[in-house]
């Protein structure tokens, strides 16, 4: 799903 991919990208972007 594109939504899942988008969420994954966001989480990776917010990698602390």
Query: Main beta sheet, described?
Result: none
Radius of gyration: 8 Å
Helix percentage: over 70%
Structure classification: mainly alpha
Low-confidence residue ranges:
none
What fraction strand? Answer: under 5%
Mean pLDDT: 90
> Shape from CA axes?
rod-shaped
End-to-end Cα distance? 25 Å
**Structure annotation, total helices:** 1
Q: Would you list the SSEs in sequence order as H and E?
A: H
Number of strands: 0
Q: What key attributes describe this structure?
A:
single chain; mainly alpha; 75% helix; 16 residues; 1 helix; 0% strand
Folded structure, characterized:
It contains one helix and no strands. It has one helix spanning 2-13. The protein is rod-shaped and about 25 Å long. The model has no long low-confidence stretch (mean pLDDT 90).
């Amino acid at each position: 799903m594109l939504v899942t991919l988008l969420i994954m990208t966001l989480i990776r972007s917010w990698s602390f």
